[in-house]
Write a structure and sequence with these properties.
With 518 residues, the chain is α/β, with parallel strands linked by helices. The protein has 17 helices and 23 strands. It has a seven-stranded mixed β-sheet, with helices on both faces. The protein has a six-stranded mixed β-sheet with strand order 8-7-6-9-10-22, with helices on both faces. A three-stranded antiparallel β-sheet has the order 1-2-3, with no helix packed on it. A hairpin with a 2-residue loop joins strand 14 and strand 15 (349-350).
């Protein structure tokens, strides 16, 4: 998407046609502070709402989305450039599922939890964990999934009792504003969820304003800047920073299905997915046949403007992204790889590109491309496949394709990634119940699943002593008896054995008697 920025507004344009979608306000630093303050104030009310009240809001918001699905899909399509089919299948449908899941299950997932404290329970003690909302949650999503990412994270944050501020990408401001409109129509308390538009300076102001949690999806370089700025106020951050995801295909895999999966995982959203297959490793014995399948299936895909129903591949989001893809394809050529299909562009439309004879030393196998390219390398055996897949600074997702499920599980457990799929690829961000996030340069923290929900609450430990008749044996003042008792605790109680702990009882009685007299 080409983007003109004035001092006051963002001009959003359809990347496929150049058509102006509209002008969005750039929030100033002072306005950002006002939004944060409003969110903090409203939090004191929202945190006291019941799970049923929160559920009611989320389910009403779902009804708004369902009623306006075509309009929302068209907006996503026009502002992000993705096909209308993917606006529905990869943005709207998954987030609707997430909304109903967390609306109906957050109360259960966040119920107080009793803790087994072992032998301490014999002393009349008990512990439980309760979960409290963190406060103001700032969500800074990427432009590639401008609806599902922020709306999903906002739903979880709201259900946990937080207030939310979304700062959409400067490339997709109107999809972000649509989310705010949806909640307004659903009857959300003003200030519960706010959307502020702007450029990088707006995002920086949000981070500097010290919210209680930041959820960021985007590039490694921007993620590092956010983490560094957030550290000044010790603001916790969840970072989802992309990947260079490997797909391993063994000779005994269902090659036809694996080829279809590879084509989809490499080229959906024009390859602009953090979990796209950007490194395809194929067992040597089948590499020729498998590559032929990939080419045949890719040639059947139609590229064009995403509002047309039969379009599978559309445009890249911006001139900046186009230059990265072009640079990577050229670097492949210079380093000896072969372009088997595609490799050309017309405007922001870049052809789906299949590349052979690649290896991990090549620049474009080390850096995230984020475009419609599918580089193919080969491996000889299981150990080499694992080594090649792990030879990356990224670790978001990976996939293993084989009919030998024991081998698949063995390989999956050795891959360095936040998610590993077996005979499946890419789509698990759409499963609300499972965590999403990576290792290494793919970031830290999780969204989705119970693990993602835990990012949005503060666990509070409540400890109860029901025995109020005697002082604790470890209290002051200390004495020779105290030291002998403490040694007994170390030797017997800390063993975790009830039988051994019984040997400590005479010492405890003597110590308590001593304390009672004093």
């Amino acid at each position: 998407m080409s983007l003109a920025v004035s001092q006051e507004v963002l001009i959003s344009r359809n990347p496929a046609t150049g058509e102006e979608i509209g002008k969005a306000k750039i929030f100033s630093k002072e306005e950002v502070r006002q939004v944060i303050n409003r969110a903090r104030s409203v939090f004191q009310t929202w945190r006291k709402t019941s799970f049923d009240e929160r559920k009611h809001l989320i389910m009403r918001a779902r009804e708004v989305i369902l009623a306006e699905m075509d309009e929302i899909a068209e907006l996503i399509c026009k502002e992000s450039g993705k096909p209308i089919a993917e606006a529905i299948s990869m943005e709207i449908a998954p987030v609707l599922d997430l909304m109903q899941y967390f609306a109906r299950n957050t109360k259960r997932l966040l119920k107080p939890r009793k803790v087994n404290i072992g032998l301490f329970s014999l002393l009349g003690r008990s512990s439980e964990i309760i979960y409290e909302p963190v406060g103001v949650v700032v969500i800074i999503p990427a432009w590639n999934y401008p609806f599902s990412i922020p709306l999903g994270e906002a739903t979880m944050a709201l259900m946990a009792g937080n207030t939310v501020i979304i700062k959409p990408s400067e490339l997709t401001p109107f999809v972000g504003l649509k989310i705010e409109e949806i909640f307004r129509k659903a009857g959300a308390l003003e200030g519960t969820i706010q959307v502020i538009t702007g450029d990088g300076s707006t995002g920086a102001a949000l981070v500097e304003a010290a919210p209680d949690k930041i959820m960021f999806t985007g590039s490694v370089s921007t993620g590092k800047k956010i983490a560094q700025s957030a550290a000044k106020n010790l603001t916790p951050v969840v970072l989802e920073l992309g990947g260079k995801d490997p797909m391993i295909v063994f000779a005994d895999a269902n090659l036809n299905l694996a080829a279809e999966a590879a084509v989809w995982a490499a080229f959906c959203n024009a390859g602009q997915n953090c979990a796209s297959v950007e490194r395809l490793y194929v067992e040597e014995s089948i590499a020729k046949d498998f590559t032929k399948l990939l080419i045949e299936k890719t040639k059947k895909l139609k590229q064009g403007i995403g509002t047309q129903s039969d379009i599978s591949i559309t445009v890249l989001s911006s001139e900046k992204q186009l230059q990265i893809v072009k640079e990577h394809v050229e670097s492949f050529k210079k380093e000896g790889a072969k372009i088997l299909l595609g490799g050309q562009n017309k405007g922001l439309f870049f052809e789906p590109t299949i590349i052979a004879d690649v290896n991990n030393s090549m620049k474009a196998m080390r850096e995230e491309t984020f475009g419609p390219t599918l580089p193919i390398a080969t491996f000889r055996d299981e150990e080499e496949a694992i080594r090649l897949a792990n030879d990356s600074e990224f670790g978001l997702t990976a996939s293993v394709w084989t009919s030998d499920l024991k081998k698949a599980r063995r390989v999956a457990e050795k891959l360095e990634a936040g998610t590993v799929c077996i005979n499946e690829v890419l789509y698990t961000h759409a499963i609300a119940q499972t965590p999403w996030g990576g290792v290494k340069m793919s970031g830290y923290g999780r969204t989705h699943g119970l693990e993602g929900l835990m990012e949005l609450v503060n666990p509070k430990h409540i400890h109860l002593n029901r025995l109020l008749l005697f002082p604790d044996a470890w209290w002051m003042p200390y004495s020779e008896t105290a030291i002998n008792t403490f040694k007994g605790f170390a030797k017997y109680f800390a063993s975790g054995s009830l039988i051994k702990t019984l040997l400590l009882l005479p010492m405890i009685f003597k110590r308590i008697k001593e304390l009672t007299k004093k």
